[in-house]
Amino acid sequence: MHTNENADPAELAKFSDLAHRWWDLDSEFRPLHQINPLRLGWIESLAPLQGKRVLDIGCGGGILADAMARQGAQVLGIDLASKALKVAQLHALEAGTQGVAYREVSAEALAAEQPASFDVVTCMEMLEHVPDPSSVVRACATLVKPGGHVFFSTINRNAKAFLFAIVGAEYVLSLLPRGTHEYAKFIKPSELAGYCRSAGLNLQHTRGMEYNPLSQHYWLSADTSVNYLLATQKT
């Protein structure tokens, strides 16, 4: 299964097994639905999507890709989890979403095929699930047009992130299935910023994302100690 791709077969299998639950708002993917308006609003504030050609890397069941298409973008969502893509395609048909398409292809393969083709590239909650995140960042830089924007979100690597993102989210609060994340694959903002600079992406903005388990409320803040987002622009 995609043995030559920058992908972990165990990770693909894990998300494929859950594919039928992507659009169940009470499922394991509930946190993604809850944070999606925050992600979308932040992207829109920095790179208005109307009329733009947008690529969503690691799109899964299409939660963000579908939302960006509804903002007037022409969106391509890519992933290597076949079942998740089928769910995304079915949802687009059932919901009548215009301007979104999906392909089973890696970021690196698409970069070789369609360099400098997209106004906006998003890669959200995906880098911590691949063997070589720097390779994905390089592919993002290749895929975006000069002057275009690339957005990332991932999880910091420190004791607080381990406590909140793994112990808290997976074992105490059961927000996510146990085993969703592996601490060693978490990425410090300084590391991701380094990958971006090496790929010719200029760091523009950094935001943190926080969660209150009592109110079940998410919000963006300046605290990047656990979940964080980076906005970059191609030179």
Automatic annotation (TrEMBL):
EC number, UniProt record: 2.1.1.222, 2.1.1.64
Residues reported to bind S-adenosyl-L-methionine: R39, G58, D79, M124
CDD domains named in the record: AdoMet_MTases
InterPro entries hit by this protein: SAM-dependent_MTases_sf (IPR029063), UbiG_MeTrfase (IPR010233)
Catalytic activity field: a 3-demethylubiquinol + S-adenosyl-L-methionine = a ubiquinol + S-adenosyl-L-homocysteine + H(+); a 3-(all-trans-polyprenyl)benzene-1,2-diol + S-adenosyl-L-methionine = a 2-methoxy-6-(all-trans-polyprenyl)phenol + S-adenosyl-L-homocysteine + H(+)
GO biological process terms held by the UniProt record: methylation
GO-annotated molecular function: 2-polyprenyl-6-hydroxyphenol methylase activity; 3-demethylubiquinol 3-O-methyltransferase activity; polyprenyldihydroxybenzoate methyltransferase activity
Keyword Transferase attached: yes
Keywords: Methyltransferase, S-adenosyl-L-methionine, Transferase, Ubiquinone, Ubiquinone biosynthesis
Pathway info: Cofactor biosynthesis; ubiquinone biosynthesis
Top-level class of the enzyme under EC nomenclature: transferase
Similarity section: Belongs to the methyltransferase superfamily. UbiG/COQ3 family.
Record function comment: O-methyltransferase that catalyzes the 2 O-methylation steps in the ubiquinone biosynthetic pathway.
Identification of the protein by name: Ubiquinone biosynthesis O-methyltransferase
